[in-house]
Amino acid sequence: MLEEQGLLQELAQIQVRALETLQAVQEQTGLQVWRSANLGRSAPVMRIFSRLGEVSKEERPLVGQRANQVKQALESAYEEYENRLQETALRSSLEQDRLDVTLPGRQPERGRLHPSTQTLRRIYRIFAEMGFQIYLAPDIETDEYNFELLNIPAYHPARDMWDTFHTTNEGMLLRTHTSPGQIRVMREYAPEPIRVILPGMCYRYEQISARSEIQFNQVEVLAVGEGITFSEFKGTLIDFARRMYGEDVRTRLRPSYFPFTEPSAEMDVECFICRGEGCAICKGSGWLEIMGCGMVHPIVLQNGGYDPARFTGFAAGMGPERIALLRHRIEDIRHFWANDIRFLEQF
Ligand code: PHE
Question: Does residue 163 share a domain with residue 73?
Fold first, then answer.
């Protein structure tokens, strides 16, 4: 009877003391220390359990029950206190960080297409709308395709128009223009009519400067069929210029010379910087040259497998870097392949 009274009293004190010390705990580590002191194996309430033998059989359940209640009360006080600590910590970190959830997020850097690729794709789209297909020809060509079959024999002074990178393989070279692709398409499709464009990199053995590079893209245009006329040639190119530069752009064809076209011309568009008034970009002329072109030379048609008595055609060659250069007023052509992110980011 006495023992029972003593233990029950002790339990009440254990509970009061434990809850009091819990109030003094400030942070997590302190809380863990409190836990092992008050709920650990040798905590006062646990020791009561091992002393149950001191109590008579009749009273033992009562004391045991009471000890369990105290233990549970401490456990739930512990849990509650832990939650409270976590909440306070979270609140104060939110206050310190001053997180403004209404701010817009940081934009990830997006990649973009090279200005040449962008221009190439515009050209593809325009010609695709006009029913032209894209055909790819090799960068490494033979002298035969790059020159001979285009009516430029070895002795011909017109070879000076294309300073050439020759390879160590006799008769092999880096194409100086996309025109050799004309022969390749014709030989593949003759005697079917042809409407293709041939884009690709060209190479010229030149001193690199602000105005000339050793590599650049070209887009060759080729149409071959029965009864294709000069006015269709003109109409197609003017249509292209309008789609590329705007409905009201003015154009002109200037007589020129290429061994593989007859007659040959160069096409100019009204300078879109000064609208024809004359500026530094058009060197005061009011016009910008955008392509070489002409009616396919009968010898070239024949080399391609078409009978020049029945078939006619037209061809043109334009440079997307030149177009991009003019459009964006880029003052140095070397920017195109320098891979400088500060340049590329602007497009
Ligand atoms: N191949 C010529 C050049 O590189 C351009 C051209 C293509 C001219 C087709 C006429 C016809 O300058």
Answer: no
pLDDT of residue 1: 58
Residues with Cβ within 8 Å of residue 23, at least 6 apart in sequence = none
Contact 156, 259 (CB under 8 A): yes
pLDDT 10s digits, 218-236: 999 999 999 999 999 999 9
For the Cβ of 312 lying below 6 angstroms from any atom of ligand 1, the answer is no
DSSP strands (E only) in 59-193: 133-134, 140-142, 172-174
How far apart CA 283 and CA 267 sit, in angstroms, is 16
Candidates 196, 254, 260, 300: which one to mutate for ligand 1, based on the most atoms within 8 Å of Cβ? 260
DSSP 8-class letter at 323:
H
Residue 53 CA, chain-centre distance (Å), reads 80
Domain final residue, candidates 96, 124, 154: 96
Which residue in 198, 231, 237 sits closest to 312, CA to CA?
231
Lowest mean pLDDT among 22-31, 170-179, 199-208, 337-346: 22-31
Local structure of residue 53 (DSSP, 8 states):
G
Residue 311 pairs in a beta bridge with 226
Same domain, 224 and 78: no
Tokens of 159: 């070879």
